[in-house]
User: Fold Zinc metalloprotease from Natrinema ejinorense.
Amino acid sequence: MRSFRIGTLFGIPIKLDLTFLLVLPLFAYLIGSQIEAVADILNDGLAAGIDTATITSGLMPWLLGLAAAIGLFVGVVLHELGHSLTARRYGFPIDSITLWLFGGIAAFSEMPEDWRQELNIAVAGPIVSVLVGVGSYALFFVTPESLSGVRFVLGYLAVLNVALAVFNMLPAFPMDGGRVLRALLARGRPYAQATQQAASVGKLFAVFMGLFGLLAFNIILIGVAFFVYIAASSEAQQVTMKAAFQDVTVGDIMTTAEDLHTVEPETTVAELIQRMFTERHTGYPVVEGDAFEGERLIGLVTLSDAREVDPVEREAYTVEDVMTTELQTITPDSDAMTAIERMREHDIGRLLVVDSAAHRSADRPRGETLREDDGDLVGLISRTDVMTAFDIVQQSGVIAPSSRPGRAD
Ligand SMILES: [Zn+2]
Assistant:
């Protein structure tokens, strides 16, 4: 992972992403290099009475820039804690809070689909930011005018935390304001539809933000625009899939064992590649034994496994040498969404579908390399299977799960 843990607050791990280490000195530099202009704004707007001569001498601009940048990111952590603690109050576990290039991310393992809960979780962050801004202003107010540096940092944080709250409330899904918008839309329509509408508004905002960033030569704004656009698309797709795949199981969309092409461990890599080419499959379960003594699943071999062997050596290597024996499996009655999430989590293209119930009743030997919970191979589910099924559901609006008779529609 590119991030490391720096501590724990309220039982939630706080992590720093490596990109954050780039952005912290950059922020310190940007604040330090504009210190006089910012001090003038604070003097005009808040009657700060900051003596610009003291804060611009020697290393002072850079020290104050660093202090303000750190203060800003403390504000971001508090903002994310606002979201996290509200979510936890509703019973959603929080994995971590990570500081990265564009601020903070609170990672939830699941998101609420109840609009009231989402609304409260989304507004909690900006509310905390406003409170941090007000708190900074109160401290600024009681700090004597002789301490120009401290007044500069506090005045700066007062303004910026409020600005952060306002910026986050832009209806650019998946930013906070966009989540508020989705929550409000979800009052009157299905969750997936509300998400798609909020995501469209979010993408539109991202395009405007990006154009504005280009015109203003603001790289950070362009970066945020890209991030918003991609995040809005992917979250909308995920929610749409989840809605489309409601009640669809792995068993409904997998390639069943009868239709499955398998290879033996003795097959050479050269033969395997030839078969992949003619059958246009890129992954095969590796099966040992025959129909008489019972077939045993011992591994999975994919095109990328085969490609690791040098072309000139492909005659000398067999499937057994290159196959994966650490198998990721799933049961046929699992949700299709679970399969997608598991593939994404392990960054793999296919899962073996095994029936653990069938396995427990059968007492025959099995591959030692397989894990304890592995049972009989009943099929294989690939990303392609899932995407094809998703296309069909999207275009036809239905999927006909033949395997579950008696389903009430
Ligand atoms: Zn937020």
